[in-house]
Specification:
HTH tetR-type domain-containing protein, Tetracycline Repressor, domain 2, Arc Repressor Mutant, subunit A, HTH-type_Tx_Regulator, 9 helices, elongated, DNA-binding
């Protein structure tokens, strides 16, 4: 059975981006790590940007699978939102490539990295929007502007989980869930 060169290239690029960041990764490095000629990479991908997009799209799909796995149909919507968001942020903080990209954006402001991280955030907002629309349809939460609500939920969750801890004692998972519940049930923007 012939080796799946495309898969080998994607795995090698993921490793290189995780170790060196986007800016410092070269197609030569990827070729060496994948044990293929540089020209082989270009039979599958036009350039480094396209390869990077492929990897990020795969990560987004993994994140959504993780978030869906955290949802339990027997729990209230507010608890499931908390569980899904917590899992998404946990994934992001444990995935080596995501850690490296957040670090590169903060330290170097690499435009391609900023754009990809924004893409990841946009995909999470779309995911949340779909869940909120379903909850509104089922009567689990009052009608609201789902796009604004999704965006605010994500930003609020990030702020409570990571930003808050810079100057305050960390909040427990229960405290965060309670704050999210109040926001969802009583403070939805219209």
């Amino acid at each position: 059975m012939a080796p799946d060169r495309r898969k080998m290239i994607v795995e090698a690029a993921t490793k290189s981006f995780s170790l060196f960041g986007y800016k410092a990764t070269t197609m030569d490095q990827v070729a060496k790590l994948a044990n293929v000629g540089k020209g082989t990479i270009y039979t599958f991908f036009k350039n480094k940007e396209e390869l990077f997009e492929e990897i990020i799209s795969s990560i987004v799909k993994e994140m959504i699978v993780e978030a869906d796995a955290a949802i339990q149909p027997n729990l209230p919507f507010t608890e499931n939102v908390h569980r899904a968001l917590y899992r998404l942020l946990e994934f992001r903080s444990q995935h080596q490539l995501m850690i490296k990209l957040v670090q590169e954006e903060a330290e170097m402001g690499t435009l391609a990295v900023s754009e990809m991280l924004q893409h990841v955030e946009n995909e999470i907002v779309v995911y949340l929007k779909q869940k909120i629309e379903l909850a509104i349809t089922k009567g689990a939460i009052p009608p609201a502007n789902t796009e604004i609500t999704s965006y605010l939920l994500l930003k609020m969750y990030i702020a409570l989980v990571s930003d808050w801890e810079r100057n305050h004692a960390p909040l427990s998972s229960e405290q965060i869930a309670d704050i999210m519940k109040v926001f969802l049930l009583q403070g939805l923007p219209r």
